Amino acid sequence: MTILEVRNLKKIYTTRFGGNKVQALSDVNFTVEEGEYVSIMGESGSGKTTLLNILAALDKPTSGEVLLRDVDITTIRDSQISAFRRDNLGFVFQDFNLLDTFSLQDNILLPLVLAGVHYAEMSSRLKPIAERLGISAILKKYPYEVSGGEKQRAAVARALITSPQLILADEPTGSLDSRATDALLRLFAEINREGQTILMVTHSVKAASHANRVLFIKDGEVFHQLYRGMMSDEELYQKITDTLTIIATGGERNA
Amino acid sequence: MRKISFYPKLALTNIRSNGKLYYPYLLTCTFAVAMFYIVLFIRYNEGLQSVRGAAYVESYMAFGSVIISIFSLVILFYTNSFLMKRRRRELGLYNILGMEKRHIASVLFFETILTGLGSLFLGILTGIVFSKLVYMLLMRLIQFPVPLGMSVSFPAILSTVTLFSVIFLVILCYNLWHIRLSNPIDLLRSNQVGQKEPKTKAFLALFGLLTLAGGYTLAILVKSPLDAILWFFIAVILVIIGTYCLFTAGSITLLKILRSNKTYYYKTKHFISISSMLYRMKQNAVGLSNICILSTMVLVTVSTTATLYAGMSSYIDAMYPYDIGLRFEGQEEDTLSSYSSFLEDLAAEKGYEVTAETWYEYWNISAGYENGEVFAPSDYNTINCYLVVLKQEEYSRYVGQDIQLDQDEILLFIPEGNHSANTVTLFGTEYRIQAYLEDSISQMDGIRVSGFQSMLIVVSDDATVERFYQAAYQNTETYRGNQSGYVGISIEGSDEEKLDFYEIICDFIYKDPNTKTDFSEISVPNGRGNGYATLGIHSRQMNEDEYFAMYGAFLFLGIFLGLLFLMATILIMYYKQITEGYDDRERFTILQKVGMSPSEVRASIRSQVLTVFFLPLTVAGIHICFAFPMIVKIIQVFGLYDLPLFIVSTVSTFVLFAIIYLLVYTLTARVYYKIVR
Ligand SMILES: Nc1ncnc2c1ncn2[C@@H]1O[C@H](COP(=O)(O)OP(=O)(O)O)[C@@H](O)[C@H]1O
Ligand SMILES: [Mg+2]
User: Any residues with CB less than 8 A from the CB of A226 and at least 6 apart, and which?
Assistant: First the structure.
């Protein structure tokens, strides 16, 4: 079943002074099925963050549609958008976006508190997730007291705790060392196997090679896509590298 | 050549690009310089010498200049250290990009020189422009029109330049020292280090609570005006300590207690505000207590001086009901009536028309007082009550109607007592109280019945007075009350004519050997009292001038210092808003990302910012309420008993201040929201 459908998405930034226009997305089309683990690859500046921000309803597209379970999120009224985002989407960001005024536990509970969930319910939801992510022991600590990997696991816990339809991740491994990166990617693969749909944006081949499907974005369009099929992580990794070489050398497009 | 001009140029660019931080600082420097110059300008102005009471004005201005210089040092230092903290990152970057520390030092050196020179120049210019206006305002307040001696005061400029050069030098040294100590990584990182969670200091919070309660209790419990002055400073210090402790430790303890209540804490409304307030209070507690204490100072200074000034006329009316008053102590029986007719004759001879006159005699007796009974004191230490005793014929002459009292009857006035008893025991004898006298009697010409347990008693005859007197002084020789008297006369004419008449009287009484006894130079032995007689002559007009000079200058200083404190308050508020803005911006974008709507975010910001800002004002209001009874007592020392007047001036000062506060808040809040969005 299709969970997300993106049609003819276009985004033009107009700078405040002088009216300089930057076309970040020109015509993006793709769909994500329930339970999929999709990664979107592209060079820096290719519009990945822009795309993700639009999917997250943090930004409005210039034109085009984003259907989440047949609801066009670009048309949801401003007053309801926050609640919609809170109930349906989970986020993991490159720079963690944890609030330093909250302990990890409170950071994780934040979306539930905003949704008005009762405290008893919150703690019963927190327990299994914290254990699953191996952060039970550090829940009382503050972001500045823990490592980057631990911070990112707390951010994942925060994304998971609302049981969202879709998890959106923007370069989640970008600020992590290689050990923490491996651990996080393993974690994403595991929660995907348990049924969680994930859409991850990255420019790291290694990160992308853990997904079921890889989309390549260039010049504001989806340029190419790869399915894992029966490939192992290593084989997919090789395939991605090849594709990137073709893209870089200006190869033919075949979406 | 090019190399030399590089640093000043960079310094100038820095000041410009940090305008949001630097311009208010420059403005403050300018303002402080201008104020200092103006106060000195007034102090050194020669025209002032022609004012009666110039000494008051001069000494107040001297006092004012000391306060301004200390305060300028503190506030400029505070602002500068704030600027340095904010700019650490930028300076670290210079360091990393290859500037050596001594190069950074020279940039800072030029920055300080530029700000110093700039604000000195602008400040003195502003001072010169406004000094004339301010001087005229002062002259209006002291009601004495004096032509301005000069328009620019060079000694004032010299002192101002000296003082502020020293201040800027101190600041420069601090900045250089600061740079020397820090390494570039620290400099770079200092803005990013995660904030540690504030520690709970329950003990400090408790201590603050106790000191504050102590200060408040002192303020409420103090009974006598003279004690009030002594205890006032102790109460002020206690309250200041209490305020700092409660703002720093108390607020955090309270918030942590709230946070530990899980069901309360994990509610949408409380969750964000409690945790953010925890950090806000950690960062701002000191700034907020500063604001709170400064606000309280503004309010107390301005309302007290305004009350004194506004109440001055009624005070003068009460103290000097007649143009010329003669106060006697230890006079003979017929002294008063003969002086009265002597004054009348003198006025007639000199061609003045008498509009009013009076004379009466009374006794001052010190006694002990307990449980509604007046008794003879056993020694000096048991004296706690002062009686003013008038015979009925004297009182009748004063009020202009015939009063008839029996031997065991009295008329009574007690300033703060209850008026329910029908009898009172005086030195062992019970007297019937025929009537209680009105409050207005407390300001009876030349007499002031005031303070704790003082009373005015009208009795039927000499025998009663004699009995009181004998009883009161049977045990003590230390202090004896005396027979006193008052002769007052008013004439038609201008202030100048009245002053002339006063001079004539003084000449006659003090200098002419043919007139009556010279009371002022020889103490004349007599049969009553402590054996000596004295006489004082008072001119209402002369005293009026002095009072106006004194209280006018006092009010002027109050307003001036009030302005200075207000400026500091505004500055602290402004910088607080800016700091908060930069810190909050990131926090609120994150909150939006995890599902808080922009309007929720805005509401949350607003409620936090409002709480933080109006907390000091609210606490200042509470401080004022508790200080009120004490200040009332202190004002009584200055001879003012007009409670409604003081209430009005305190309330209106507070309202005015709150309006300015609100205005400043709105303006700075705009800066804040611009940064956050
Ligand atoms: N707010 C913005 N205003 C103007 N231009 C923007 C804005 N955000 C991104 N861009 C531009 O859009 C393009 C895509 O940016 P982005 O989506 O951040 O790329 P990526 O995340 O793939 O590195 C870039 O050229 C960038 O300069
Ligand atoms: Mg990006």
Answer: A213, A214, A216, A236, A239, A240, A243
